Amino acid sequence: MSVDQEQQTIRCLVAKVGLDGHDRGAHVIARTFRDAGFEVVYSGLHRSPDEIVQAAVQEDVDVLGISILSGAHNTLVPKIVDGLQQYGTFEDMLLIVGGIIPDDDETELKQMGVAEVFGPGTPMEETVTFVREHVPHAD
Q: Which CATH architecture is the domain 3-134 placed in?
């Protein structure tokens, strides 16, 4: 990583998609990212895939972190990926997912472009390190 990349502030959108009303994990990761020096935007609860895509594009984020515990990840995450691809921004951001995701579903999410899935109990520093090591930076 170059000096410029290390000094660039990483912009993150932490997003809650669908009807999932459990947001403690999203708040914890948002706080962790802020403490790590990232610039963080939190979507709030009950956002549609389109609202999340719009926010990610408008905020020009480097990282989109989707927090989902409802079990609807196989329906909602592909809609977000499709929306980002339509805007041509999918290749320019790191997409990560946090929540309770079965192993088979995790494999499917990664095949569609999710960089990593973080389950409950993942050490916060592991998530921060992953983001720092994998966030795409403009050259």
A: 3-Layer(aba) Sandwich (3.40)
